[in-house]
Write a structure and sequence with these properties.
Blueprint lengths: L1 E6 L8 E6 L6 E2 L4 E6 L4 E5 L4 E6 L6 E2 L4 E7 L1 H10 L3 H8 L11 E9 L9 E6 L6 E2 L4 E6 L4 E5 L4 E6 L6 E2 L4 E10 L4 H4 L2 E3 L4 E2 L4 E3 L9 H4 L17 H10 L17 H17 L29 H16 L2 E9 L1 H16 L7 H14 L5 E3 L6 E3 L5 E3 L1 E3 L2 E3 L2 E2 L7 H16 L13 E5 L18 E5 L3 E6 L4 E14 L5 H16 L7
Parallel strand pairs: 5-19, 9-17, 23-27, 27-28
Antiparallel strand pairs: 1-8, 2-4, 2-7, 3-6, 4-5, 6-8, 9-16, 10-12, 10-15, 11-14, 12-13, 13-18, 14-16, 20-30, 21-22, 23-26, 24-25, 28-30, 29-30
Helix pairs in contact: 9-10, 9-11
Length: 544
């Protein structure tokens, strides 16, 4: 037995972070097994083992910053394999000579065209590599270095460039093919010197070794034939972008693609939210279980909406939805389909509240805040949530238990030019009316300026959606899951109300309450709604 030290290979300069250590002391690893995962500001990459052996010690840990030459770990390997390693690794100069295209012949006055077949070069693997994209078509005129196809193994994706300029006359390879060394990619017609032997010009030429494009996780090997810096110096706009906003390695992406799944639907359990193979497998299991549970009601699946060409009826203007609009639509649809909504309507006499608010306007303005009815609604909702804890709760994801919350955070729906946003005010029950007035104004302005942080829109227990002065006598707000209820507020109106002896004009506020009938019964909702109406009608109750 012999000991071998594995070090960080050439990374093209600079330092990178260690985001995952894939092995432990005592593990037996095979050649090409991942040892650590590194991340720069441009790409993440897995460092594979250059040989098989047993891990004796590990010199790195997650969060460390490393450079080329730093020790990763020490392996115990067979002596024969250790000695053969040096012989098996070809010199970089020899690899460069093999990968480099033949030197161009001297320029001639007269030129003619010749057909040449471009083949898959040596990509460092004897196994077939999947073709995930064909970048050219018959008739395309390309330049030397333009991408022909994109290949992807379980470690990295790579582009195969054209060794010369010309016109594509035939494309042999297609998406889904398994590309091996020497497999035909495409036929190209290019100009050659007239003095040269045309028969010699019409040869089957291998393309130069591909450069690694910017994948989510690229493999870096000490014995690789191309410098690792190609992975870190990737193009700003790579040819292939597969779930660019998702943190996962190539093997995980390939597995998800084989299952036909979107990585955006999954939650990563790895370091920094990295999606692992186990996460994909668990997602598939959960999906299968969900289909089994709904098999009995398969006939209830919603039919798709028909696709209609509206231009046949007249002039149209198609505008793409903003990202926020699409996200809101998806969330609302999910909530409406999965939660059994029930909505109750009522009118609350807030004449005394409005008189009290008018008396506080000047004092509020002196403190730099505008006192609207919303702080009163927030305060009343906080008291009602404390008295009726069923509304300050959420159903567990499996539907087997209720999660009661000891805090009271309330979201407020804000209309912005980009779409609907719901910032959350925390600990509403512990803040004064003027504090709530200042915070609601601040959050609403942040929402309109697109300056809200993700944390500002998380953790809500209950939501208030107010149409304010827009109008309407009532509406059914959609529950903001995983909350179990939402309150809708419409336009204040002066109406005649019978006081026992005569009708008198009163300021009536239309309100509605939508709730998840799985978590809340009609009696519970009625009691909550009545209690909140009493608080708004007589604000002195807020002091109790």
């Amino acid at each position: 037995m012999a000991k071998e030290t594995v070090k960080i290979p050439d990374l093209g300069g600079g330092s990178v972070d260690v985001i995952e250590v894939c092995v432990a002391v005592g593990d037996v690893v095979a050649k090409e097994d991942s040892l650590v995962v590194l991340e720069s500001d441009k790409a993440s990459m897995e460092i594979p083992s250059p040989m098989a052996g047993k891990v004796l010690s590990i010199s790195l840990k997650e969060g460390a910053t490393v450079e080329a030459g730093d020790v990763i770990l020490e392996l115990e390997v067979e002596a024969a394999k250790s000695e053969a390693k040096e012989e098996a690794t070809p010199p970089a100069s020899a690899v460069a000579e093999k990968a480099a295209p033949a030197p161009a012949p001297p320029a001639k006055q007269e030129k003619s065209s010749a057909l040449e077949m471009i083949k898959v070069p040596d990509v460092g693997s004897s196994d077939g590599i999947d073709v995930i994209e064909v970048c050219v078509a018959v008739g395309d005129v390309i330049s030397e270095g333009d991408s022909l196809v994109v290949l992807e193994s379980d470690k990295a994706s790579m582009e195969v460039p054209s060794p010369f300029s010309g016109k594509i006359t035939k494309v042999v390879m297609k998406v889904g093919d398994s590309a091996k060394l020497g497999a035909e990619i495409a036929e190209i017609e290019r100009e050659v010197a007239a003095a040269a032997d045309v028969n010699e010009a019409k040869v089957e030429t291998e393309a130069p070794a591909p450069e690694i494009s910017k994948p989510a996780a690229a493999t870096v090997s000490p014995t690789a034939t191309a410098p690792v810096s190609a992975a870190l110096a990737a193009k700003p706009e790579p040819t292939v972008i597969s779930h660019a906003d998702v943190y996962a390695g190539p093997a995980v992406r390939k597995l998800a693609r084989e299952f036909g799944l979107e990585l955006e639907q999954m939650a990563g359990t790895g370091p920094k939210g990295r999606i692992l193979k186990e996460d994909v497998q668990q997602f598939v299991k959960d999906l299968a279980k969900s289909k089994v549970n709904t098999a009995a009601s398969a006939g209830s699946a919603l039919p798709p909406l028909p696709t209609i060409d509206f231009s046949q009826f007249g002039e149209i203007d198609t505008q793409p939805l903003s990202k926020l609009h699409k996200l809101t639509a998806a969330n609302m649809h999910r909530s409406w389909v999965n939660l059994p909504h029930v909505t109750q309507f009522d009118e609350v006499d807030i004449g005394e509240l409005e008189d009290f608010r008018s008396g506080l306007k000047r004092e509020a303005e002196q403190r730099g805040v505008k006192l609207t009815p919303l702080p009163f609604l927030l305060k009343a909702a906080a008291v009602a949530l404390r008295e009726h804890p069923k509304f300050n709760a959420s159903l567990s994801a499996d539907g087997e238990s209720m999660v009661y919350k000891k805090y009271i955070h309330i979201g407020i729906a804000v209309d912005t030019p980009a779409g609907l946003m719901v910032p959350v005010i925390r600990d509403v029950d512990k803040k004064s009316l003027l504090d709530l007035a200042a915070e609601t104004a601040e959050l609403a302005q942040k929402a309109k300026d697109r300056k809200l942080k993700p944390a500002d829109m998380q953790g809500g227990c209950f939501t208030i959606s107010s149409l304010g002065s827009i109008g309407g006598t009532g509406f059914t707000p959609i529950i903001n899951a995983p909350e179990v209820a939402i309150m809708g507020v419409s336009k204040l109106a002066i109406k005649p109300v019978w006081n026992g002896s005569e009708f008198e004009p009163r300021k009536m506020l239309p309100v509605s309450l939508s709730y998840d009938h799985r978590a809340i019964n009609g009696v519970d909702a009625g009691q909550f709604f009545t209690f909140m109406g009493e608080l708004l009608a007589d604000i002195r109750r807020l002091l109790l």
